[in-house]
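As a warm-up, study this chain.
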Amino acid sequence: MDLKSEFGDCRFVIMQGSADRTKDLANFFHNSLELPFGGKEIGKTERYSMYKVGKILCVSHGMGMPSLSIALNEVYKLLHYAGCLDKCTFIRCGTCGGIGVAPGSVVVSTECCDADLNHFYTQSALGKHYQYPAIADPEVVRHLQLLAEENGIPVVSGVTLSADGFYEDQGRTDGFFCEYEEADKFSFLQKLHAAGVCNIEMEALLFLAFARRAGVKAGVVCTVIVDRLKGDQVTSTAEELEEFMCANWKLLSHFVCE
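Now compare it with the structure written out below.
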């Protein structure tokens, strides 16, 4: 494959967890922006799926930072050899739990932290540990927030916490194990809220740290589907959840057209 001819015109990389939703997003860009799209995955799909729609590369990364790490390394190498990595802006979109943020809102991450409120990603290699700041590109943050406001999408910008798991790691009480009480959970969530944390998900910390380390622009915009200060269970209907995600995708469609 001639990487430069196939991918050299890429200017945006939009990543999210689900392979199915990644294909849906590619079709959304194709239909709403009238961009060329062959409708087929690029390469193998055992680990992640990738679709090219005009100048946009849509990639699924699975759940959690270990899965994301593999996808990032391979996509960055691909675009480097295609000669366009430094011209691309990377955006992660997805869902999250808000911390005092209502369902249907989008959170634009300014920076990320881990569960210990460290504002850096720790990379372990050969028995050593390296720390990389996880800061979004300020221009991307401002642009996403402005576009959300202009299009009537409730938006908040702030710190995103990336957890290593979904249940205990995020302070939930409905997993198989739980070593704490409901009061402990809310005490922890209030601590996060006081520290400026707006939402919790599982990938943004690595996503932003990787981009900053590589010297490329990146941002994260996630749709809130539950306010964790009010409970752990999603109470919105399937139709409402679909509407929430469509608003996120419409925001991205405006972003890639600017």
